């Protein structure tokens, strides 16, 4: 069944209204300074700028990571912003492995080499390995554990695409999304490192939903136009035998419910609420105004 983009536009506008998104959002053009510093930091961490297989990393991947960090995590300290930028770029590079056959085998072996402390032939993966091991210098043990396991799972999710199976269980769509999107990592980074994890740990299940489903909802148009079916909305539609627009509505409803739960859970901590609100509005703004999501074609 062909997806009606008129219905998609109406659904997205309703979603943003319910999410209390205010135009214009706190979107910032990619900070050229952060991007240039991220290039320097990547090289310092051993990523070979002149190798053929790192060109995507230093180009649009790192540029978009800088823009994402600026918009969604602009409330972080400069040091943590740089870590977020480099780590996001590394994970995007890993997630994009199916489009770059020359790194597929290295991604498949990433977790094994990470655990055994072995060198990775690919310099981006080697830098990612080292960066993850540094998390314990910035975060508490529990927070760092969540970050590391969440990041490493991304490489496992990439391998699922090789299975070529048909999604028949709706719970699989959630499972796939949780391990492919690193939501625990992005949840922990929202809050200051000096804020006790007990302040926000009970909100993480709903933060997972926000991080996953907002992306699912606002990136759907781009993916549908490209014919990309390896995503949550497509899996959910296939497994529940509903249309993609209906699956999109399910994701939007889940995101709104999660947002309301998060605000309730974090209410005792003014600092936690403020950090979450800055992240959430920036996260939506990033998706709406970033050209790669093509939402300007729908009039956004």
TrEMBL record:
This is Terpenoid synthase. It comes from the Eukaryota. One of its GO terms (molecular function) is carbon-oxygen lyase activity, acting on phosphates. Keywords: Lyase. Belongs to the trichodiene synthase family. Pfam families: TRI5 (PF06330). The lineage of its organism: Eukaryota, Fungi, Dikarya, Basidiomycota, Agaricomycotina. It comes from Tetrapyrgos nigripes. The keyword Ligase does not apply. SUPFAM superfamilies: Terpenoid synthases (SSF48576). Gene3D superfamilies: Farnesyl Diphosphate Synthase (1.10.600.10).
């Amino acid at each position: 069944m062909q997806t009606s983009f008129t219905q998609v536009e109406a659904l997205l506008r309703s979603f943003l209204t319910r999410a209390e998104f205010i135009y214009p959002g706190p979107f910032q053009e990619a900070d050229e300074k952060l991007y240039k510093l991220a290039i320097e930091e990547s090289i310092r961490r051993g990523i070979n700028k002149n190798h053929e297989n790192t060109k995507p990393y230093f180009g649009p991947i790192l540029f978009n990571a800088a823009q994402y960090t600026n918009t969604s995590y602009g409330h972080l300290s400069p040091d943590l912003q740089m870590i977020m930028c480099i780590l996001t770029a590394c994970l995007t590079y890993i997630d994009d492995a199916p489009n770059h056959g020359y790194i597929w085998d290295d991604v498949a072996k990433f977790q094994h080499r990470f655990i055994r402390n072995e060198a990775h032939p690919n310099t981006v993966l080697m830098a990612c390995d080292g960066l993850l091991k540094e998390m314990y210098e910035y975060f508490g043990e529990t927070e760092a554990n969540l970050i590391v396991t969440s990041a490493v799972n991304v490489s496992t999710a990439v391998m699922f695409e090789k299975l070529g199976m048909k999604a028949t269980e709706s719970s699989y769509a959630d499972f796939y999304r949780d391990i492919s999107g690193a939501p625990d990592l992005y949840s922990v980074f929202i809050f200051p490192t000096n804020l006790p994890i007990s302040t926000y740990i009970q909100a993480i299940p709903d933060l997972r939903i926000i991080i996953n489903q907002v992306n699912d909802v606002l990136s759907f148009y781009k993916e549908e136009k490209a014919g990309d079916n390896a995503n949550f909305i497509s899996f959910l539609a296939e497994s529940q035998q509903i249309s993609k627009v209906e699956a999109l509505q399910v994701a939007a409803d889940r995101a709104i419910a999660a947002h309301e739960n998060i605000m309730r859970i974090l209410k005792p901590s003014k600092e936690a609420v403020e950090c979450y609100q800055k992240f959430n509005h920036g996260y939506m703004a990033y998706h709406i105004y970033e050209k790669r999501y093509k939402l300007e074609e729908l009039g956004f």
